[in-house]
């Protein structure tokens, strides 16, 4: 498959891009080369190969949920610039 400058111009218009004539020719050449390279995949025999979403098996890497002691309220508020009633006090963002 080959991409011409007119197709590049159409895609650039859809993307709201302004390209010079030289850029259109350059992109047409580059996109054609990419498609030509991708066409090599058609030469591969994929009969009997199961479709996958990942090339490697994906496993759950989450750790077990373990209950443990957390930071106390006083420790958490120790470095806060301002606190009130045991909570962080921040400037209002809504009026």
UniProtKB/TrEMBL annotation:
Pfam families attached to this UniProt entry: GatC
Coiled coil: none
Listed Gene3D superfamilies: Glu-tRNAGln amidotransferase C subunit, N-terminal domain
Keywords: ATP-binding, Ligase, Nucleotide-binding, Protein biosynthesis, Transferase
InterPro entries attached to this UniProt entry: Asp/Glu-ADT_sf_sub_c (IPR036113), GatC (IPR003837)
One GO term of the biological process aspect: translation
One function term, GO molecular function aspect: ATP binding
Chain segments carrying region Disordered: 72-95
EC number: 6.3.5.-
Catalyses which reaction(s): L-glutamyl-tRNA(Gln) + L-glutamine + ATP + H2O = L-glutaminyl-tRNA(Gln) + L-glutamate + ADP + phosphate + H(+); L-aspartyl-tRNA(Asn) + L-glutamine + ATP + H2O = L-asparaginyl-tRNA(Asn) + L-glutamate + ADP + phosphate + 2 H(+)
Enzyme class, first EC level, given as a word: ligase
Record-linked HAMAP family: GatC
Protein family according to the UniProt entry: Belongs to the GatC family.
Subunit structure: Heterotrimer of A, B and C subunits.
NCBIfam families: gatC
Role noted for this protein: Allows the formation of correctly charged Asn-tRNA(Asn) or Gln-tRNA(Gln) through the transamidation of misacylated Asp-tRNA(Asn) or Glu-tRNA(Gln) in organisms which lack either or both of asparaginyl-tRNA or glutaminyl-tRNA synthetases. The reaction takes place in the presence of glutamine and ATP through an activated phospho-Asp-tRNA(Asn) or phospho-Glu-tRNA(Gln).
Protein name: Aspartyl/glutamyl-tRNA(Asn/Gln) amidotransferase subunit C
Organism: Paenibacillus pasadenensis
């Amino acid at each position: 498959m080959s991409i011409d400058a007119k197709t590049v111009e159409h895609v650039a218009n859809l993307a709201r891009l302004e390209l010079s004539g030289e850029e259109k020719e350059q992109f047409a050449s580059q996109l054609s080369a990419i498609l030509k390279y991708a066409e090599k995949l058609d030469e591969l025999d994929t009969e009997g190969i199961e479709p996958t979403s990942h090339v490697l098996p994906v496993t759950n890497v989450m750790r077990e949920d373990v209950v443990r002691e957390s930071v106390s309220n006083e420790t958490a508020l120790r470095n806060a610039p301002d606190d009130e009633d045991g909570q962080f006090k921040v400037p209002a963002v809504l009026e």
